[in-house]
Design a protein that fits this description.
Blueprint (H helix, E strand, L loop, with lengths): L5 H11 L3 E3 L6 E3 L1 H7 L22
Antiparallel strand pairs: 1-2
Length: 61
């Protein structure tokens, strides 16, 4: 299984304690799982690194 290009960037950002990293394919700024944990709950936006299992995303269970 090949991991997506952003996987290593996310791991490195979390290891540094960073809240975001830049997605190499889109150029978008992406929140890390650490940033989501600081928020304290799922925001419902279907974030890539949601540590809460997307519990507040409409239509997801």
């Amino acid at each position: 299984m090949t991991l997506p290009p952003w996987h290593a960037l996310h791991e490195a950002a979390c290891a540094r304690g960073d809240s975001t990293y830049r997605d190499p394919e889109t150029g978008y700024t992406v929140f890390t799982a650490l940033a989501h944990l600081k928020r304290g709950k799922c925001c419902g936006s279907a974030c890539r690194h949601c540590p809460y299992g997307h519990e507040a995303v409409p239509g997801r269970s």
